[in-house]
Amino acid sequence: MSSELNILAIYGLYTALILLLQVTGATAQLGMGYLLSSRDEHRTLTGITGRLDRALTNSVTAMALFAPAVLILALKDGFGHASLVAAQVFLVARVLYVPAYGLGLTGVRTLLWLVGFAATVVLYLMALMAG
Questions:
Q1: 62 by DSSP, 3-state: which?
Q2: Residue 76: which of 28, 14, 123, 9 has the closest Cα?
Q3: Full-prediction pTM beyond 0.90?
């Protein structure tokens, strides 16, 4: 397995960890009864749990964009030093993004999002140029 694919797997596990943290916070705020219900009545998460919920949604979106770029490069045998660096930049930016979001560091959060997104775009451009 290439390093880029390992990074994809690591990011998947990281997103699963974010989900566990979000569920833990949601359980504390909303109670197990609400979480087990059909949730017809909408309740809003607040504070750090609310920010973690939004960070989770953003992380899943980032995964939906990042994964195809890496998989296309894998299919085209297009991995190289530049794709590894782009994947590493993505991972670092995304790992730092969640605590920045959770702590309400708005400017830092936005910069980290932009860096991760730019790294993903670079991977797609590499995929288009590969084999």
A1: helix
A2: 123
A3: yes
Round to whole Å and give the CA distance between 104 and 79.
36
Residues in the chain: 131
8-state DSSP, 43 = -
CA 17 to chain centre: 11
What the chain holds in terms of domains, given with CATH numbers, is 3-129 (1.20.120.550)
Please tell me the distance from the alpha carbon of residue 36 to that of residue 110, in angstroms, as a whole number: 34
| pLDDT number for residue 33 | 78
Question: DSSP alpha helices (H): ranges in 32-77?
Answer: 32-36, 47-75
Q: Which of 33, 59, 60, 29 is nearest to 46 (CA)?
A: 29
Residue type for position 7:
I
User: What is the pLDDT, as a whole number, of residue 43?
Assistant: 82
